[in-house]
Amino acid sequence: MSDQTILQKLEILADAAKYDASCASSGTAKKNSLGGKGIGSTEGMGICHAYAPDGRCISLLKVLLTNHCIFDCHYCINRKSSNVRRARFTPQEIADLTLSFYKRNYIEGLFLSSGIIKSSNHTMELLVEAARILREEHDFRGYIHLKTIPEADPELIHQAGLYADRLSINVELPTDAGLTRLAPDKDARQIEGAMGGTKMAITQAKDEKKRFRHAPRFAPAGQSTQMIVGADAATDADIVGKASRLYDNFRLRRVYYSAFSPIPDASAVLPLKRPPLIREHRLYQSDWLMRFYGYQPGEIMQATEKDGNLPLDIDPKLAWALKFRDSFPVDVNRASKEQLLRVPGLGTTAVRRILTARRHRTLRLDDVAKLTVSLAKVRPFIVTCDWRPTLLTDRADLRRLLAPRQEQLELFAA
Amino acid sequence: MTSLQHVKLGTYYVVNLPRPDDFAFWRERARSLVQCDVPPDRVAWVESGGSGDLFAGGDTRLPVPPADARPIRASKRFLSLAKNAALHSDPERFTLLYRLVWRLQRNPRMMEDRADADVRRIEELDKNVRRDSHKMHAFVRFRQVKEEDGSEHYVAWFEPDHHIVRANAGFFKRRFANMRWSILTPRGTLHWDGATMREGPPAQKSDAPQGDPAEDLWRTYYASIFNPARLKVGAMLSEMPKKYWKNLPEASLIPELIAGAQSREATMVDAGSRELEDRPETLEAIDRAIHACRQCPIGELDNQAVMGEGPQAAALMIVGEQPGDQEDKAGRPFVGPAGQLLDRHLEKAGIERRGAYVTNTVKHFKFAQRGKRRLHQSPTAKEIDTCRWWIESERALVKPKIVLALGASAARGMLGKTVSISKVRGEPIALEDGSELWVTAHPSYLLRLDGEAAEKQAKLFDADLAAVKERLGELS
C-alpha cells in the first residue's frame, strides 16, 4: 500500500467519495486571510469551481481519508466485504493536497470523510488531525466540512466542531428497519444521539458568542445529513416525514437526498434497479417547498400518489395545486404573499416582484408575463384584471396540459 | 427652471470616460448634467477608444449647475444596480444609467416597477456582471511559477466578458492575502505581492505560464469525483459554458468522460448488482433457479446446487454453511459426516429432523481440488451475501418461527454481518419478519475437536438445541 503514489491514492479515495451528494460550502461565518499567516476566505456564498459532467458542483476537495472499513453496510462501495482497491492518506497528505488545490483556486476547501479503521475513535482522531494541521499549522481560513462518526467519543466530535465549518452525520436510510437491514453495524439511536449532541454544542457556542466576543466558533455552518433514496422500500411520504422530523429535532441546515446508484461489487441484498434521478429531484423540490414556501410536511404528503410517492411527471407544487383546485384561481392583484407562493410557476422572486409591482399598477396578464418565467404554467391558476381562467381549473385533462412532454421526461429520467 | 440659463439650447454634450469601469466619474458628470436639466437625448457617453468621431460636433465642456440646484435623488436600489451595470461591456450602459437617473427625479419610486423596460434592462446588466464576477471567482486557475529567489508566484490567465477585473481585486486579496499572485486578462492585470496591489495594462495569453504539475492531480480528482451513473451534460453546460473551457485544465477531460459514461455505468451494473426480477414464488422455482445461478465463482465449479428439504410449513428452519462433498454428490443437504452428527444431536434434543426444513446458506459446494479429493473451502463474505437472495427467498416461503443457524457463515447469511458465535449463542435474535434466529456452532466444528474440548463443545451444542426445542414448544 505504501507503494501507492498520491495520484493513485487520490484516484481511489475521490472515487470512493463520489456517492456523497453534498458539496456545499455556503452559509458559514465570514472570514478572510488578511492579517493572518495563511490563505483562505469564506464570504457567505460558496463558489462552485467546476462542474462535473454529472451536473454536480465541485466546490470542495471531497475525499475519504481511507476506504478501508470495518463496517459492512450493503449500499456502500467501501464496506468490508466489498472487493475494491483500498488506499489510505495520512492527515498530513490531506492537508498538503488541500492547500495545493486551494492555492490554485480549484476549491473552496475540504470535505473529509472516512471509512472506519481500527475503531471509531481512532478514525475520528485522524479526521480531526487533518483539520488541525490546516487550521493551526497553516492558518487555513477556507471551508472545512468534516463527516463525523456517530460512534466516536463526544469529546472528539467537539474538537471537530471547533475546526470545521460544518459537521455532518449521515442518517443513511429513512427508516430504522432499512438501516438494520442494510447497515447492520449502525444504530439509529446512536446516530440521532450524536446529532442531538452536535445541535446542543452549536446552540451553546452561538449563545457564548453573543456574550463573549472571543468565544470559539463551533461549526458555524451548522450540521447536515444525507439519506439514500431508493435502496429500501421507504416511500416519498416516509422520506419527507423523516426529513421534517430531522429538521425540527436537530435544526439541520440541509437534508441531502442521494438516489441510490449502482455501485461496483454491490451486495446481493440490493437487487434493485436504480431509482430515477428525477425522484431525487422531486424530493429536493419538496424540501424547498417546506423551507421557503411555507408548506407543511403533511401537505407534501397530500401531494403524493396512492403508492406514497410524489408524481415523477410533474413537480410537487403542481401536484398539490391539482389536488386542491378549490384554492385557485388566485387574484394576483389582491392575494396574500402566502397564497401567491402556492401558485405553480410562481417562485419566491416572482412573488416578490408581483408584490412590489402591484403597488404601482393593477397587473394585467401582460405584466405578469414580464415578471414570471412561464406564463403558460401560471395562467390556469391566476386572475388578473383582464384574465379569468373560467373553465380551465375544472378541466379533467389539466394535468396532461401542464405536464412536460413525455419524451422529454424519459430523456431526463434516463 | 433656474438651470436653463446654463444650458446652451440645441447643443448636445459629449462626456469622454477615462476608463470603461469608472462609475465614480460617471456619477459626478451625471449629477451636474441632471442638475442642469440636460435631457438624456442631449448627452453622449464615449468610452476611450470608442467611436468619438460620431459626436465630433458635441460640446465636451459641460454646463456648471447653479449653486442653489436641487440635490439629485437616486434610490439605494438604483445605486447598487448602477455600480454593477457600469462594468458591463454594453456601449449603451452609461446612456441607460443617465436616462434612469433622469427619470428617477420625476418618479422616485420608479425602480420598484419591474415591468418598466429601462428597469428591466439595468437589472439584466447587473445580473450579467454579477455572473461574470462569480465565474471569475470560480474559474480563475493559478499556475505556480518558481522565481529565481526560490519563492512561489501564482499566475492566472482569465478572459472576462465585462470590465470586472478591478472591481474583483478585493476578493482575491482577501482570499490569498499571504500569497504572491497575478491575474492577467485582456482588460487589465492585477498583481499582489502580499502587501500591495498593483494594476497593469492588458495582457496576452502567452504572458501566462503554460502548465503546473498539480494539474495532473486536479484532473485525476475531477475524473474520479464524477459519477457516470448520473450523466447530466445540460446541467454542467449551463453552469460551465464552453467558452470557459479553454482556460480550465480539467475541461480537456470532459468529452471522453461523457463518451465513456454509459459504458462505465453498464460495467458498474454488470460487475455489481444482479438484474434480479421478482423473488421466486415457489420452492420449486428456487430449486430450478439455483441450478442455473452463476452469480459467484462457486457456481462455476464442477458441482451441483443443493436445495433445502423438508415440509414447507415447518416451524423450524435449520441452516448450515454449504453442501459438502457427499451432499454435492447426493444433491441433498446434511447427509455426510456432519449431517449424521447433527441427526444424533437433534434426536437427543427431541427435535425431529423430518419436521424441520433443512437447508444451507450457500447453495453450491466450494472446494479446492487436491488430486482426487475435493477439499472444503469456506465461502467468502461476498459469496455468502450474494447467495443471501436464495436463502431469503426460501425463508419468505417457509416462514419458519425459528431459524437455527449452524456456524458463522449461516449466521452471516441471516444477519448480513459477521458475528461471533460465542457472543450470540443461547439467546434469540429478532429477525425482521418476526421470526427468531438462534445461532450455534456448525457440527463439522465438533467433528474437528478431540478430548475435553470436543466434550465441552458438544455440551454447548446440546444446550443450544435444547433451548430451541423449548422455545419451539412455547411458540407452537
TrEMBL record, chain A:
Q: Which CDD domains match?
A: Radical_SAM
PANTHER family associated with the record:
ENDONUCLEASE/EXONUCLEASE/PHOSPHATASE FAMILY DOMAIN-CONTAINING PROTEIN 1, TYPE II SECRETION SYSTEM PROTEIN K
**Naturally occurring in which organism (per UniProt):** Erythrobacter litoralis (strain HTCC2594)
MF term (GO), any: catalytic activity
Annotated protein name in UniProt: Elp3/MiaA/NifB-like radical SAM core domain-containing protein
Which part of the chain is the Elp3/MiaA/NifB-like radical SAM core domain?
A: 59-286
Q: Which cofactor does it need?
A: [4Fe-4S] cluster
| Entry-linked Gene3D superfamilies | Aldolase class I (3.20.20.70), Photosystem II 12 kDa extrinsic protein (1.10.150.320)
Provide the alphabetized UniProt keywords.
Iron, Iron-sulfur, Metal-binding, S-adenosyl-L-methionine
UniProtKB/TrEMBL annotation, chain B:
Q: Which NCBIfam families match?
A: SAM_7_link_chp, UDG_fam4, UDG_fam_dom
- Uracil-DNA glycosylase-like domain mapped to chain residues: 307-464
Pfam families xref list: DUF4130 (PF13566), UDG (PF03167)
Record key words, sorted = 4Fe-4S, DNA damage, DNA repair, Hydrolase, Iron, Iron-sulfur, Metal-binding
Where is region (Disordered) located?
193-213
* Name of the protein in question: Type-4 uracil-DNA glycosylase
Which family is this sequence assigned to?
Belongs to the uracil-DNA glycosylase (UDG) superfamily. Type 4 (UDGa) family.
Record field: transmembrane: none
Q: Which InterPro entries match?
A: DNA_repair_put (IPR023875), DUF4130 (IPR025404), UDG_Type-4/5 (IPR051536), Ura-DNA_glyco_family4 (IPR005273), Uracil-DNA_glycosylase-like (IPR005122), Uracil-DNA_glycosylase-like_sf (IPR036895)
User: Could you confirm whether the keyword 4Fe-4S appears in this record?
Assistant: yes
Q: Which GO terms describe its biological process?
A: DNA repair
* Entry's Gene Ontology molecular function annotations: 4 iron, 4 sulfur cluster binding; deaminated base DNA N-glycosylase activity; metal ion binding
Q: What CDD domains does the annotation carry? A: UDG-F4_TTUDGA_SPO1dp_like (cd10030)
Read off the Gene3D superfamilies from this record: Uracil-DNA glycosylase-like domain (3.40.470.10)
